Amino acid sequence: MILSPKIENFVLHCGEMGSRWGFNRTIGQMVGLLVIHEQPLTANEIAESLKISRGNVSMGIKELQSWQLVKVTHIPGDRKEYYAPSGSIWDLANRVFEERRKREIDPTLSLLRDQILDGPNSPEEEYAQKQIQAIHDLLETVTKWSAELQRLSPEQLQTLMKLGSSVGKVIDLKDKLLKKS
């Protein structure tokens, strides 16, 4: 399967973004390719489109399945396995965020909690303890906030995002009103 220049450009960019999302370039390209194809693709079609080996595709599919980003489908009468994104763009974004939280934020929070419970042994560690507590509190707040966001429907999330800076203005107004009272 030959990709049009527009599609190829998108797929290559997804590959570059892959490392920022938490996986390698090939897997990023695979996600990009699957997302923009209306019909599910076979492993051979993926390999041909991306000019990579069939083995590389198999390893990539396993990784994408571990992230719950791809699903396997079958066509009646056809023995091949076909691969498609396992949900909408919003679903995929939520899964990537959730996996990154599990792989990066949760272990960091665990380490920070252990450090806080251990307590400082010197004045130097006392300052470090305060900083560790601040980092912990920030990550804990962001984690709780993101969990709330993940519970919203895509429509609710879009509405929230469209509010943009208006939220900040409402908070500023609330603060001004509280100062006057």
From TrEMBL:
<dbReference type="InterPro" id="IPR052362">
    <property type="entry name" value="HTH-GbsR_regulator"/>
</dbReference>
<keyword id="KW-0238">DNA-binding</keyword>
<dbReference type="InterPro" id="IPR026282">
    <property type="entry name" value="MJ1563"/>
</dbReference>
<dbReference type="InterPro" id="IPR000835">
    <property type="entry name" value="HTH_MarR-typ"/>
</dbReference>
<dbReference type="GO" id="GO:0003677">
    <property type="term" value="F:DNA binding"/>
</dbReference>
<comment type="similarity">
    <text>Belongs to the GbsR family.</text>
</comment>
<protein>
    <recommendedName>
        <fullName>HTH-type transcriptional regulator</fullName>
    </recommendedName>
</protein>
<dbReference type="Pfam" id="PF12802">
    <property type="entry name" value="MarR_2"/>
</dbReference>
<dbReference type="InterPro" id="IPR011991">
    <property type="entry name" value="ArsR-like_HTH"/>
</dbReference>
<dbReference type="InterPro" id="IPR036388">
    <property type="entry name" value="WH-like_DNA-bd_sf"/>
</dbReference>
<dbReference type="GO" id="GO:0003700">
    <property type="term" value="F:DNA-binding transcription factor activity"/>
</dbReference>
<feature type="domain" description="HTH marR-type">
    <location>
        <begin position="33"/>
        <end position="80"/>
    </location>
</feature>
<dbReference type="InterPro" id="IPR036390">
    <property type="entry name" value="WH_DNA-bd_sf"/>
</dbReference>
<keyword id="KW-0804">Transcription</keyword>
<keyword id="KW-0805">Transcription regulation</keyword>
